[in-house]
Amino acid sequence: MPFSSSLTTQRFSFGKSALSPYLGLSLWVGILLLLRGPLQSLMPHDEGWYAQQARWIVETGDWVSQPWWGAPVHDRMMGIQWLIAASYKLFGVSEWSARLPGAIASWGAVMLTYAIGLRCLSPAIALWGAAILAATPIWMQASRLAIQDVPLTALELLGIWALLQAETQPGRRGWGFLAGCTVGLGFMLKSIMVIPVVMALGPYLVLEHRRHRHLLNPGLYLGLVVGMVPAIAWLAFSVQRYGSLPLERTFGLLVNLAQEDFHNVGPLYYFWNIPLNAFPWPLLAVPGVWLGWQSPYPRKALWLGYPLVLFTLLTLFKTRTWYYPLQLLPFVALLAAITLTTLGTLYRTGRRRRLVAGLTYLLAGVGAVLVGAGIVALLRPQWIAVEELWRYALLAIAAGLGWLVPLGIYWRSRTRSRRAESAPLWLTGWLLGPWLAIALLYATGLWGNYNPDVKLALTTSPLQEVVATNPVHILTNSISLGDEDAVLITFYTPQPGVATDNWQTLAPGSYAWVAVPDLGALPAEAVRLGQVRDWVLVQIPLEFRLKGISPCRQRGEISTTRGWSE
Q1: H/E element holding 188?
Q2: Is residue 433 situated within a structural domain?
Q3: Domain for residue 500, yes or no?
């Protein structure tokens, strides 16, 4: 297939202004970022963990400690907690404000994907690539989570864009300074996990050095130093307060992650996980690699070498998760856009008609199956035993209708002149299916309302009256405080008290969360007020009989262990 990208910017832009593509993309991604169901609740890990740590920052005014129920944790850097805490300061504590930094970073990443594509490829590929990123399911889900990875990716894209600006723009040292700063700020977000990103830039920095000479730019190294100031300052204050514990836990965790597969997913995990979570764009990105290699576009060591090297490094890293590859997705989107714009050229010119027709009918076939399945689910819900099936049915219908659009455009555009006019609409139809599916996932609450039962229990009678007006402690023996349910209960408890492993240290009449297996250690007079999953809210009695009480462990260090992730 010959490479072509003659679909001009005018066919894809929203006007003659250079700002028009940015405005159009802002509308395209902004609608999705603003959509949400009426009810919202957090994921426990890592969203609930970071959201609660940021809440403690706001409540205590302590921007150094990284606690969990009073015990220092310090198992990662502090960047995302600071961002969420700043959002809390402006808008109050809520799921929306906890997720706001990620949403803003996602918008910025889409804009930067367009800007990078504009410098490295063509206006059409840049525009479609940015639009594809906003229609990538796993990217958009992560964009509305209070986690590190979307802000980290936005910082990485900002650094890459700054390097591109430093190639030709005046103020080369200033752009290099900005690029260097993003590395240090990225370290503040995710510590040494920025190292694979710097390594992935190696082919561009080294192989094309004679052209851009970034490695001789003093601004780059000054930016590296200045960008590391927040991380070094925070680590210094933490060491001053807690000794070597912050260093041991932060970097010890990363060594463990690099050496052991804690999730036990195997070395081929990303080969199926990325295509599944980002469907269908990785399937288009694969031929995009070949088409891109044959293209005349410069800087292949960047837009082609960077994602390939980073993918290799992430695959070699022993711990593999769904969110590490988020850093790849802007470039996956650009590579998919190379394929998509090539198909658009074939559609417009009438070449390779069988290929274009076959893909159009294939897409429509998938759409028809989705629409049919959605209608069946709505009309015969008893056939499929899934709770709230109607939400999934609407999702399938929306995605299916979107993917039927290219077939309708294809049927209506038989002549070459009509195909030239309808090519942008035909291409847009490829994106409508995923975009509409994402919109329904947000609007129905399938994304965003992850644990409604925990939030509902703590915001309605009979528990609301107790937790809203009283500190609630937590008794931990058999279940770690880092347990998923414990994380959620902590965030949705308005006034967390103290953690203890001995109920006798709590004042008579006080309230505490107690894990179901630990209820036997309480006196018979303890009042059970309600249960949320495996945790029971109890009131310590004012008077009780010590006789017959099961022995408790002596008060010791409270475990805050949770699943390995970074």
Answers
A1: helix 172-190
A2: yes
A3: yes
Compute how many other C-beta atoms are within 10 angstroms of the C-beta atom of residue 378: 15
- The CA–CA distances, whole Å, from 118 to 121, 129, 157, 332 equal 6, 10, 13, 15
**Structure confidence at residue 559 (pLDDT):** 42
Contact at 8 Å (CB) between 175 and 163? yes
Claim to verify: residue 358 and residue 498 sit in the same structural domain? no
% residues pLDDT > 70 (the chain): 91
Tens digits of per-residue pLDDT, 94-127?
999 999 999 999 999 999 999 999 999 999 999 9
Amino acid at 319: T
Q: Tokens at residue 537, please?
A: 């809210």
Q: What's the domain range around 479? A: 453-539
pLDDT digits (tens, 9 = 90+) for 425-477: 999 999 999 999 999 999 999 999 999 999 999 999 899 999 999 999 999 88
Among the three residues 443, 476, 493, which one is the final residue of a domain in this structure?
443
Token pair listed for 503: 């109920």
Contact of 98 with 146, CB cutoff 8 Å: yes
Q: What would the DSSP string read from start to end of 480-492?
A: -TTSHHHHHHHHH
220 near 174, Cβ under 8 Å?
no
pTM more than 0.70: yes
Q: Band of the pLDDT at 218, cuts 50, 70, 90?
A: very high
Residue bearing tokens 């510590």: 191
| Domains contained in the chain, number | 3
Mean pLDDT to the nearest integer, 531-538: 94
Cα Rg for the chain, rounded, in angstroms? 26
Give me the chain's average pLDDT, please. Answer: 89
What is d(CA 422, CA 78) in angstroms, rounded to the nearest whole number?
Answer: 49
Task: Provide DSSP, 274-336.
Answer: HHHHTTTHHHHHHHHHHHHHHS--S-HHHHTHHHHHHHHHHHHSS---SSGGGGGHHHHHHHH
Q: Rounded to the nearest 10 degrees, what angle do helices 172-190 and 218-227 cross at? A: 30
Are 263 and 320 members of one domain? yes
Enter the tokens of residue 86.
Answer: 């700043």
Q: Which residues have C-beta within 8 Å of that of residue 417, sequence separation ≥ 6?
A: none
